[in-house]
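Work Package 3 (structural annotation) set out to generate three-dimensional models for the target panel prioritized at the project kickoff. During this period the team completed the workflow that converts sequence records into discrete structure tokens, so that structures can be stored uniformly alongside our sequence database. As a representative example, we reproduce one entry of 249 residues exactly as it appears in the project archive.
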Amino acid sequence: MTVYFIGAGPGAADLITVRGARTLAACRVCLYAGSLVPRELLAECPEGARLVDTAQLDLDQITAELVRAHEAGLDVARLHSGDPSVFSAVAEQMRRLDAAGVPYEVVPGVPAFAAAAAALKRELTVPTVGQTVILTRVAQRATAMPEGEDLATLGRSGALLVLHLAAGYVDRVVEELLPHYGAKCPAAVVALASRPDEVILRGTLADIADQVKAAGIVRTAVIMVGRTLGASQFRDSHLYSAERERHVC
């Protein structure tokens, strides 16, 4: 049978994709991260499905659950918050399943940065202002950053930076980006994007750290820094320009 890595979306239960919900409804086993995935989503599972909260399980235990279900002839839904393509720890699970000969598929989901941009009511790419978005994080004791991917290096690009898993290190983020973006550069933080208790902070590099600490935000947040967050005077996109040549077939 098959393991389905399903992006559960950023938080709101109704932001799972139609494909994700249909796949979830067809799986007799569901592994989910209880601390991140909304429990309302579990209502999509078929009656009598085996539900396993992986919050307290290590990689070996999670793999054992997936392999056990496969050997029993049961499809498995492996629910991950956001989208499995970024910061999801899916790669190591896939590697284990490859070694065990267990087939799997990936169902994409709405990533946290997209939900954060929606909350801010901002397009992250704006003509003539910024056309590049960098998704990254900061080095931590448990996970170092590869050479050349530190904030000081990435900041030289001037592109919009979207930082996951960094709210607890906001002072370091500001310190490393100030030389490249300047104190007046727009910055924003969205915590618990799309959830009822969502928190939105808007400011600049000069004041965003103080706002984050005052709000008590230490996790489940996205930090954004870049000019497009404050862009108001910019050229219209060529996509809908009256000067664009259009052919009617």
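Helices lie at 18-25, 59-71, 90-100, 112-120, 151-155, 170-181, 208-215.
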